[in-house]
Structures are given as structure tokens and as C-alpha cells.
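hey so i finaly got around to running the thing on Uroporphyrinogen-III synthase from Planococcus salinus. pasting the sequence first so u can double check i didnt mess up the copy paste, my clipboard has been acting weird all day
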Amino acid sequence: MYEHDAPLNDRTIVFTGSNKPQEAVKLVGRLGGKAIYLPLIETSLCDSEQPDFKAYDWLIFTSRNSAEAFGQLAENVSARIAAVGDKTAETLKQYGYEIDFKPTVFSADRFVEEFPAVAGNARCLFVRGSLAKDTITSMPLEVDEWTVYETLLKLDNAKKLIAMKNCIVIFASPSAVAAYCQAGGNWEGIRVAAIGHVTEHAIVRNGGHVDWIPERYTYLDVINEIAKGS
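ok and heres what it spat out for the C-alpha cells, dont ask me to read them lol
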């Protein structure tokens, strides 16, 4: 798969998401690189009233954070579960939920193309974070929303990242991009990997260039892409 045994030798990979991706961090080490975890965002549970889950046929999750928050806030529900992404699905399974639908590509855009044919006339609840886009609610279905967590920008960490040079930075959300830019970050002196085309668009919109974006939107896949191109 790789041209060298240690393709990431002398490379520093910075992870910026709200959750440390343990498997990907270990993979960087096995491939000879140095991994740094510097989260640019954090999440906080919302103190909001729970909806009547019995009123919904489907619950929709598009992030690991929404799945984790739901698991902490809600009791077992009988509705069917739709999840975008393996990590989202894995988190829900840890709380005892079975996944009834996942899109063929881990993106909300692909989800809204494929899910309506499965859902029919079902009533859906989108379990979301405070900065979630309106992609899910754009479907021709009855979709209510329940905000379970708030996304906060960690600008102090963003400033630390700005001071770093000659590193590869992995952005996994537009929120992390926003934190970097609000702290005054520019795109000189770093190389950039994006997980997801929405994140890629946020980087480009803010004047950056994406060097790596995997076909499958996971940390392991983006590390493998970086290693193959090193």
C-alpha cells in the first residue's frame, strides 16, 4: 500500500476535532509520524425539554456528538434509527440502538438523496447540534428538530495551531475551520486534509487549499491518503 515502511516519518499530523480519534492517532505512530491532538471545538449538552419520542417513526443522527449526547439525555426509544457515518453508528450501538439505515456515502447530502425512498411518509426527528446545517430538514418529509448539544470554538487552541509550522492539519468540520480562521489563522506553512466535502468547501471559502480528502469520510482513510502521498 505504501512505498516506504514509515511513510509518515518526520511528519506531524494535527487532529482538531472534538473527540480524539484513538485508532487514527495510533496509525500515525505505526507509520512513523507524530500525532498531536489539539481540538478546535468542544461540545456542551443542552438543557432542553425532551420531545415525545413515541410521535416519531425515525430518529436521524449525522454526527458522533449528537449520538453521544442523545445517549446521555434520552431513555430507550422504539423509533427506527438512521445514522450518517460509522462512528455515529458505533456510538449509537454502544447505547444499545440498532441502525436501520445508513447512506452509501457518509454525508448529509447523500443521506437526503437516499433516505426519502426508505422513509416514505414517516415522521422524523433530527437529533442535532447547535450549528447543524438545514440539509436534513430540506427533505420532502415531516422532520422536526431537537438540539442536544452546543458547539463552542476553542480559540486558544486555534492560536497554538497558528504558531505551528510544517505540519499537516486535519479538519473534520466547518466549525473547526471557523475556529482556526476566527483566531487569525492563514494557510501558509501548513498542509491541509479535510474530512467531508462540506468541510472542504469551508476551507476553500476561507482562502485555503485542501491537499487530501478521502473518498470515505473517516480519520483512518484520511491518514492512509496522506501516507500514500508522502
